[in-house]
Design brief:
Elements lengths: L21 E4 L4 E3 L2 E2 L7 H8 L4 E5 L5 H7 L8 E6 L2 H13 L3 E6 L1 H8 L12 H9 L1
Parallel strand pairs: 1-4, 5-6
Antiparallel strand pairs: 2-3, 4-5
Amino acid sequence: MLMVPFERVRGLLPPYAVQDKVLVDATNAFGGPGTPADLGGRGSSDLVAEWYPDAQIVKSLNTMHFETLAVAGTAPGERLAHFTAGDDVKAKEIVAGIITDLGFAPVDTGPLHSGGILQQPGGPLFNRPLTEAQALAWISH
């Protein structure tokens, strides 16, 4: 799981260390405080996939504020959604299982490029706590 500042991701791990592994990209690319980085229309996870080409990249666990993340998985009521985006179905299933184990509802936003862009800073799902029902309704619109 990548949980470091985005600018530290490239070169952080030797590519062979994540070869044939699921690599969860929980990073967010910012250009300044609270400002999304300009990646020229690319998703931050697209870049991660280039840097670690033999890993199965899943964008996830990056949209929720850390204070919400710390308590929402055990809070009573409807589960909040955590999103997954990726090109490998099995990798997304593995990450969905982790999300479920943490007490959240996994919601698939699609392929790594388009689904990842929905989740990154400036995207419509970033820092927007939604219940599972709300997230599924939003995805289906």
